[in-house]
Amino acid sequence: MSESAAPVGVLGGTFNPIHHGHLRSALELVEQLALAQMRLMPCARPPHREAPSCTAEQRAVMAELAVAREPRLHCDRRELERDGPSYTVDTLCSLRDEFGASRPLCLVLGYDAVAGLDSWHRWQALLDYAHIVVMARPGWNWPVEGAVAEWLAAHRLEDAAGLRQRPAGGVLPVQLRPLAISSTDIRDQLAAGRSPRFLLPEPVLDYIEKHQLYRSPGAPARAR
Ligand code: ATP
Known about the structure:
By secondary structure, the protein is an alpha/beta fold. It has nine helices and six strands; from the N terminus they run E-H-E-H-E-H-E-H-H-E-H-H-E-H-H. The protein is globular.
């Protein structure tokens, strides 16, 4: 398969804020699976959780700052350009239009994201548009029972070569470098006046400081 037909990865998230757990995983996947690129897709209006504490525009700018020096990672703003809830199936449909019917697409989800997959809008249609690559995440396990577990098992690929044999429809579990970093922890540290430095890229931390994001009123002055 030529480079131009190599699979394209899609990592959706709230990215509130983006951190090294997202970025390292994205880069390792590009290299391990020989992806042409990874699209980091900030979610404008997450259907399954409370509205994030900063705007979609701010979360997208932080993602752009984070990937600025790595040409294989891109921030894709298409969910910010749509009205209504940001359903992943609609995003994949739009990517399919962009890349054409035969280009393999790989939707990347962490173990925590697949755990609640059956509450997603048209979740079983996801495989009509893309493969699903499931990455291990510290503190979470592969689902072993229930509708999602059965569905994942039914579509499981033997190895990464399966991602190139058809454009969509397979499930591939992958083990990457485990990094126990979460946006929740970073927000909590900032709200408590502690420094999350080295858990996320420095330009992202600079942006957070400049715009005084995730600050709780009355918190002590923040250590950098
Ligand atoms: P929050 O703590 O606010 O829930 P988060 O750190 O889980 O945020 P998201 O933006 O919700 O970040 O995650 C986007 C995607 O990246 C999800 O599929 C999630 O499973 C995955 N992910 C996030 N952090 C890691 C990590 N440290 N290791 C592996 N996967 C991760």
